[in-house]
Specification:
Largest sheet: 10 strands, mixed
CATH class: Alpha Beta
Number of helices: 11
CATH architecture: 3-Layer(aba) Sandwich
Shape: globular
Structural class: alpha/beta
Radius of gyration: 20 Å
Number of domains: 1
Strand order of the largest sheet: 3-2-1-4-5-12-11-10-7-8
Number of strands: 12
CATH superfamily: Class I glutamine amidotransferase (GATase) domain
Length: 379
């Protein structure tokens, strides 16, 4: 998804215990235990690192992600590289009694991704006992997973995370890597799935698609920072100035606008017009190449070269976005960063407010997903 030089955007005990942890060396039988009385709305998030938990906490605090009686389970594989002790400390320090963790220890490797494997019971439990899933952002997916050679600009930091999450997508949605596999959502088509940045790319790879491994080099033919800058901000999917001026309080990501498809969820379900061009927060160097099975592009960059959002033909509550509507500072009004050298300090919220309907658009993603979670719970 992103290189180290781009913003680093950067399972579970019983839900009745605020921070209940499984015993060392054991994986509890159910990924998402049914909530007592069926009252709690249960969301599973993959890769529950502190940044992602903070993002959810801020979205709930400012009312952007408004789900009554929400409980969240953070699922991860024990071989992942992230520091989940720091995440547990963040939850404890901030009193987030609605968040619990679930490490999964079942074996998984590259050869297991696109078939039933030892993690299959975990994925089945998620669909059976949760009300929806989020796949968050993170590092590049190993190219071998989607049967390509590895570009020198691809940075492989956390392969077991990708094996686990790509396999989860394959189990949920199926894909072209095994046409005979029956996806779990076939029995529950209203189950909402949101993929953000890497999560968007994971939806694509999990359903059999491939990735562009470096946008500047492969799409625009640019191999220097200066040539990338010359393309202009609508072609920047991270902020190239940050590579030249790392001490100048420049944003690592970039804001650019979208082209919306008239038949996509943003128009048909969220009420925007095809003539709207909302600005979004972008921080990645890889992108969707060949689409996965049954995915449909519903938004692109303004030049049409980069897929920015997808929905699913068969499962109407699946949405993948290449951008970041979850960033903890996206709706914060305090001036903190510059977009370019010499610019005054500004806030991410001010940028959105200055380019309508950008603020409403980024919030609408969460309103839509919240509504689908509630509907999924009431099935």
């Amino acid at each position: 998804m992103k290189r180290r030089t781009v913003l680093n955007i950067a399972a579970i005990g019983v839900l009745g215990l605020a921070l209940g942890l499984p015993l060392p060396g054991r994986t509890p039988a159910s990924a998402v235990p049914p909530a007592a009385g069926g009252a709690a709305i249960r969301l599973v998030v993959f890769n529950p690192e502190a940044f992602n938990i903070r993002a959810l906490a801020e979205l709930r605090k400012n009312g952007t992600f408004n789900v009554p009686n929400l409980t969240v389970v953070g699922v991860y594989h024990v071989k992942q590289a992230d520091d989940f002790e720091a995440a547990r400390k963040y939850v404890a320090d901030n009193g987030l009694d609605w968040f619990t963790f679930r490490p999964v220890s079942a074996e998984i490797g590259e050869a297991d991704v696109f078939r039933k494997n030892a993690c299959t019971p975990e994925f089945e439990d998620i669909v059976r006992n949760a009300d929806g899933v989020i796949f968050f952002g993170g590092p590049d997916i190993p190219a071998a997973v989607y049967k390509k050679k590895t570009n020198l600009l691809t940075s492989i930091d956390d392969p077991y995370r990708h094996y686990f999450e790509v396999s989860a997508v394959f189990h949920l949605l199926g894909g072209s890597r095994d046409e005979g596999f029956k996806p779990l959502l076939a029995a529950r088509p209203g189950f909402p799935v949101l993929g953000i940045c890497l999560g968007f790319q994971t939806l694509n790879v999990g359903t059999g698609g491939t990735l562009i491994q470096d946008i500047y080099a492969e799409v625009y033919g640019k191999t220097t920072v200066e040539d990338a800058i010359a393309l202009g901000p609508e072609q920047w999917h991270s902020n190239p100035y940050r590579l030249l001026y790392p001490m100048d309080k420049l944003m690592g990501p970039n804001f650019h606008s979208l082209e919306l498809d008239g038949k996509g969820l943003f128009v048909t379900a969220m009420g925007f017009k095809p003539t709207d061009h909302p600005r979004i927060l972008s921080s990645h160097h890889q992108a969707v190449e060949k689409l996965g099975k049954d995915l449909v592009v519903i938004a692109t960059s303004r030049d049409g070269k980069i897929a920015e959002a997808v929905m699913h033909r068969k499962f109407p509550c699946v949405l993948g976005v290449q951008f970041h509507p979850e960033h903890p500072l996206l709706f914060d009004a305090e001036p903190r960063y510059r977009q370019k050298p010499g610019d005054p300090l500004t806030s991410m919220r001010a940028i959105l407010e200055g380019t309508p309907p950008s603020l409403a658009f980024n919030k609408a993603v969460w309103s839509w997903f919240a509504g689908k979670l509630v509907a999924s719970h009431g099935r």
